[in-house]
Design goal:
Strand content: 35-45%
Distance between the termini: 40 Å
Number of helices: 1
CATH class of the largest domain: Mainly Beta
Largest sheet: 6 strands, antiparallel
Number of strands: 10
Radius of gyration: 18 Å
Number of domains: 2
CATH topology of the largest domain: SH3 type barrels
Shape: elongated
């Protein structure tokens, strides 16, 4: 990645996201399009997320002390705009909204008109 790209990414405004660790998502564009996976980590400052077994990259690791070196495969992050959450009930990709409960806590729910089911439970 060039210095200009890193600077541009560092200056990118943080986008609010409804994705959380453990959510099942669908990749809607890019090399991994159409694949589903579980969110391992959400990188809010970079507007990206790591998804289990998707966007795999190879890293060449040097042996240090007691750990062996070699080529290691690991998940690279995917931009949040390329991900869409899957509803647990209707099993379709959906946008989500937050509904406030009586005690003031927020509950995420599916925005599909035929579903409207809570996602957090």
């Amino acid at each position: 990645m060039s210095a200009a790209t890193k600077k541009r990414e560092a200056e990118a405004p943080r986008v609010p996201t409804h994705l959380r660790k453990g959510d099942t998502i669908l990749v809607i564009t890019g090399r991994e399009r159409g694949k589903t996976g579980k969110v391992l980590q959400v990188l809010l400052e970079k507007n990206r997320a790591k998804v289990e077994r998707l966007n795999m990259v190879k890293r060449h690791r040097k042996a240090t002390g007691n750990s062996a070196g070699g080529i290691v495969e690991k998940e690279a992050s995917i931009h949040l705009s390329n991900l869409q959450i899957l509803c647990g009930r209707c099993n379709k990709p959906t946008r989500i909204a937050v509904r406030r409960t009586e005690d003031g806590k927020g509950s995420r729910y599916c925005r599909r008109p035929d579903c409207r089911e809570a996602i957090d439970e």
